[in-house]
Amino acid sequence: MGVPGGSRDEVRTAYDAIAEDYAAAFPGTEPEAPLDLAMVEHLVRVVHEGGSARVLDAGCGTGRMGRFLADRGCSVVGVDLSPGMLAMARRDHPDLDVREASVTELPFENGSFDGVLFWYSLIHLPDDDAAVALAEAARVLRPGGYVLVGSQKGEGTVDVGARLRERGHDVALTRWHRGPRELIGLLRGAGLERVARLVREPIGREREGQVFVLARRP
């Protein structure tokens, strides 16, 4: 959930404030539809095909998706900007390796990972900063490695802080919505080639559709 510049403090403060409530509400993959998880399962399959399965959970939050990956045989490292969210990850998943860092400044050597997961962790970055994060992902990926991005589908921004304030958290937080074309363009700009995409309409209480794009480093 790392964002450079003035937005970084906004994101860190917001997620520190909601960390305990988030961990209690979503201990696992409750928010995900089976279609969504199928994309993550596919990421797991393709990284294992390379003979190794070291995956970076970029914007790992409370570690719930890192747990999903680790339970499927991946060696997971998570990074997140929020100490509060990382505290929940360490409490609930003490076996996971999670570290405080921004997704725009990854503290890893080139070619360190077989896969990178951005599971709703580009949503608080404007386009220029999302491009930096994806360039960092491409840098830390080995040749032939994969990136999976999940995001709300749409255009423009949403004031998520307003929704959080209704729930008793006095925070500011902005979310950027993107469609598949925008996400694919950002991935291509980082030198990553599209492999697959999934776009679905809202389910249940969701307000937006969802988009997932899998890309590969040549």
CATH fold type = Rossmann fold
SS-based class: alpha/beta
Number of domains: 1
- Return residue spans where pLDDT drops below 50 for at least 5 consecutive residues: 1-6
Compute the number of strand runs: 9
The CATH class turns out to be: Alpha Beta
Tell me about the largest β-sheet. Answer: 7 strands, mixed
Number of helices: 7
Q: Determine the N-to-C terminus distance.
A: 26 Å
Strand content: 25-35%
Shape: globular
How are the strands of the largest sheet arranged? 3-2-1-4-5-9-8
Say which CATH homologous superfamily is assigned.
Vaccinia Virus protein VP39
Helix content: 25-40%
Radius of gyration: 16 Å
What CATH architecture would you give? 3-Layer(aba) Sandwich
Question: SSE order in H/E notation?
Answer: HHEHEHEEHEEHEHEE
